[in-house]
Every structure is written in structure tokens, then in C-alpha cells.
Design brief:
Number of domains: 1
Order of helices and strands: HEEEEEHH
Largest sheet: 5 strands, antiparallel
Shape: globular
């Protein structure tokens, strides 16, 4: 079990909130810190579930209709040490690279 259930002041949570991520249920039912990015044609929902240490990505056309779904495991060593720099690097190396190949 992740320590985020009781640690709402985590620097990783603060970082996500600074990027306009909100704690909510995303369009496919995943719960966590979620935001949606759109280029006017396609949208990518990214949800960080810090309890299960997962990142969910759901891509759809802006008018609706699934394009892709993917799930990453967040590395425990980043989450448990609350390493914001490591978290950002991991996101750049994994999520950004994945999305560049999809959008």
C-alpha cells in the first residue's frame, strides 16, 4: 500500500497540482490526479494513481471514441522517497516518449 493515503502534502502531489492535475475520476473510471491534454483533434487523459503506483493514459478523438489505453507502473523508489526530480525525469522518459509515438 502506498503512503499517499495519509501523505497529502507530498512534494509529488504538490508538483502535479502545480500542473493543474486534480484528484478525480477520469473519463474511463480511473481515480487519481488527472488532467487532459488536447491538440484540437485528439485528447490524452493522464491519471496518476498514487495509491496503486500506476499511471493510466487514455487517448480519444476530441469528438469521442477510443484511440488507445496504456498503463505504466510508477517506480517504488521514486514514490517512496518522494523524489520530484526523479519523478519528472521518469515521466519525461516514459510518458512523453509514449505519447510522442501516439499523437
Amino acid at each position: 500500500m502506498s503512503h499517499f493515503r495519509t501523505n497529502e502534502t507530498s512534494p509529488i502531489i504538490a508538483h502535479l497540482e502545480s500542473l493543474n492535475y486534480k484528484f478525480k475520476r477520469d473519463c474511463v473510471g480511473n481515480v487519481g490526479y488527472s488532467n487532459v491534454y488536447s491538440d484540437g483533434h485528439e485528447a490524452a487523459w493522464i491519471t496518476f494513481d498514487l495509491i496503486a503506483n500506476k499511471v493510466h493514459i487514455y487517448g480519444e478523438y476530441d469528438c469521442g471514441g477510443e484511440l488507445y489505453q496504456y498503463e505504466f507502473d510508477l517506480p517504488d523508489e521514486i514514490i517512496y522517497t518522494e523524489d520530484v526530480d526523479g519523478f519528472i525525469k521518469w515521466c519525461d522518459d516514459n510518458i512523453e516518449q509514449y505519447l510522442e509515438n501516439k499523437i
